[in-house]
Amino acid sequence: GPVRRRPVRRAFVRSTDAARARRAELRIGIPRVLNHYMVAPFLRTYLESLGIGSRNIVFSDASSEDLWRESGKYGSVDPCFPAKVTLAHLHQLLHAKQARRPLDAIWFPCITHTASFLSHILGSSTCPVLAGTPKVARAAFTKERDRFAAAGVAFIDRALNFELPALLRKQLFETWGERLGITEDENDWACEQGRAAMAACNQDLQARGRALLDQALRDNRLVLLMLGRPYHDDPGVNHEVLEEFQALGYPVLSLRAIPKDPAWLEPLFRDDLRSGRIADVFDIRDVWPENYSVNSAQKVWAAKFAARHSHVVVLDLSSFKCGQDAPTYGLIDKILATSRTPFLTLHDLDANKPGGSIKIRVRTFAYALERYWERLASGGGEEVAVPRHTAGG
Ligand code: SF4
To answer: What residue numbers bound the domain in which 86 lies?
Structure first.
């Protein structure tokens, strides 16, 4: 029969004073890697809402050549660089950060799904390499001896699903309930605070993105959209290519900062909406029906956005050995070629920073963009060659 629900009023159940006092002393490390570039506001706010002091939530530093050099010794398998470099971050947490003041735990959840703004998608799964990396890291740090136990640090890698809020609440309570001595009410409340922090962060980024795009239209300037995964924001993973473009005067927009207001996006997608090719502005079934992988699907949508915006050009980043990006290369190439959108692809970004060659590629592309924009402004139209540069890392 149908489930009958009735509202119940009861008092909020709090944990004991002793448990709260213990939480105030705990220190928790979080590696600054992978999809933490997306969900960090949630993780931090969740812990803070439960009474962990903000100074006791310790993130590793951004990736760098030094960080990587100091701790490349743990590797047991050889995946893409964003997954490999996580071991260096754990090393830093276990040594440099631990030496300053001991950590009680390192939290590196297996993130299996993330929420998506897209519609009509087959799923919101993360890359299996990404989701499994905490388990690989656990193996790497315990294969000869348990380095976490030796440092007196609990390693917490339980799975989290950010697509389904009820499941996420349950998973978080199973992860932290006993460890932190919290009640289920406190856990649920902290989850809500985490979700609110994520929403506020997204809104803030989108407001800045909108201001950037509005300004570009007013000044008749180009904006560079970084088409990449959340962790391609890490300067050690993108080899500071974004800074190179900014130094040349190009404002950089991230995928997350593209405004997601349907009313603002509607004029860009109007023809497709009217012709029925798409059901709404976040529908990508017209170009990629097999859209189960969350970050890949968002990259494809962002390419569609860039293709429809007159002042956006694209920097397409991808890491060496990325099996998730490979199926989208051709798609993104076709979308941008059809719309005559200039783009630079830097695929195969790896551990070694090819500093000189990246500089040359950036400057060559920037020069071509400048010429292209000038010729368009002087009425060159379809005759003007569109800069499309493709290169390995
Ligand atoms: S999506 Fe690609 S770069 Fe990211 S973890 Fe998976 S394989 Fe590595």
So the answer is: 17-199
